[in-house]
């Protein structure tokens, strides 16, 4: 488990603005340990900016964000990185690197400035690569990988970081259906261990299947947050995406059909 498990992420009257646009206004939400929150909205609704604001990478336009008892910006950077991990929507490989070394980047918050990765750190990285089905890729150069494989390496680095709070911006982007489901199963297992998962996603059916909670961002300042079973419904999803949405029940749960 993470050294900082149990730290709560929350916001009060949070505002997220860009230029003259009010994307999110007066957002009150608490992301509890053990919860899995899916953040949904149209392109440009503020999902990424909200995630970055919760991570402390940009100042709120109003209100407050709390990581434990203080703002994320008030944490020492290494201490914050041990508690909170962010997977950006886009990641770039600035230098040639093996897959195992790319995964080991996640251990940097846990290693002293003049120290090297230990065998225990390498074992964590190998376990993370195995968890995303890249166990046989350790010595591959990341520039030889497909987009989906690179996405899984980035996820492995976050798993190796081992935070108690995971903020993930479209983590299943570029993944085929098999790996989408595998990653969502993995994240749900992390939540069941007591981690906090906050994830942007476009697929309402997958959100309904895996998330315990949902945050809908309508892009005009308004939002809806609550348990996934209550928030993800035909009327709210139709409003969110601006087209008719039907909910269908099936033996594995429920799904949504859009546009008809």
How would you characterize this protein structure?
The chain has helices at residues 47-55, 77-83, 99-104, 119-131, 147-161, 177-192, 204-210, 228-231, 234-241, and strands at residues 9-18, 21-31, 36-40, 62-67, 84-87, 165-169, 196-200, 213-217, 223-227, 245-250, 253-258. It is an alpha/beta fold. It has one domain: Rossmann fold (3-Layer(aba) Sandwich), CATH 3.40.50.300. α4 crosses α5 (147-161). The chain starts with 8 loop residues before the first strand and ends with a strand.
Any idea what the shape is? globular
- Helical stretch count? 9
Query: pLDDT average, as an integer?
Result: 92
CATH class category name: Alpha Beta
CATH structural architecture: 3-Layer(aba) Sandwich
Order of helices and strands: EEEHEHEHHHEHEHEEHHEE
Query: Per CATH, what is the topology?
Result: Rossmann fold
Would you identify the CATH H-level superfamily? Answer: P-loop containing nucleotide triphosphate hydrolases
Distance between the termini: 45 Å
> Total strand count, please?
11
Helical content (DSSP H or I, runs of 4+): 25-40%
Radius of gyration: 18 Å
Number of domains: 1
- SS-based structural class? alpha/beta
Instruction: Give me the side-by-side strand order of the main sheet.
Output: 5-6-7-3-8-9
Approximately how much beta-strand content do the residues carry? 25-35%
Identify low-pLDDT runs.
Answer: none
Main sheet makeup: 6 strands, mixed
């Amino acid at each position: 488990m993470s050294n900082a498990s149990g730290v709560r992420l929350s916001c009060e009257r949070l505002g997220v603005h860009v230029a003259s646009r009010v994307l999110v206004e007066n957002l009150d939400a608490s992301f509890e340990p053990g919860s899995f929150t899916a953040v949904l909205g149209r392109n440009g609704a503020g999902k990424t900016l909200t995630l970055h604001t919760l991570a402390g990478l940009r100042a709120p336009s109003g209100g407050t964000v709390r990581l434990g008892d203080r703002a994320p910006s008030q944490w020492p950077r290494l201490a914050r990185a041990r508690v909170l991990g962010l997977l950006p929507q886009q990641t770039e490989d600035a230098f040639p690197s093996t897959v195992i070394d790319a995964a080991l980047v996640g251990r940097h918050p846990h290693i002293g400035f003049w120290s090297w990765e230990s065998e225990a750190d390498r074992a964590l990285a190998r376990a993370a690569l195995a968890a995303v089905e890249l166990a046989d890729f350790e010595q591959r150069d990341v520039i030889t990988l497909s987009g989906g494989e690179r996405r899984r390496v980035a996820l492995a680095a976050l798993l190796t970081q081992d935070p108690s709070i995971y903020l993930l911006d479209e983590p299943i982007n570029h993944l085929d259906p098999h790996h989408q489901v595998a990653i969502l199963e993995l994240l749900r297992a992390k939540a069941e261990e007591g981690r906090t998962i906050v994830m942007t996603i476009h697929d309402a059916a997958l959100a309904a299947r895996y998330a315990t909670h949902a945050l809908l961002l309508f892009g005009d300042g308004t939002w809806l947050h609550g348990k996934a079973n209550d928030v993800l419904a035909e009327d709210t999803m139709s409003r969110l995406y601006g087209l008719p949405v039907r909910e269908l029940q099936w033996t594995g749960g429920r799904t949504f059909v859009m546009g008809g």
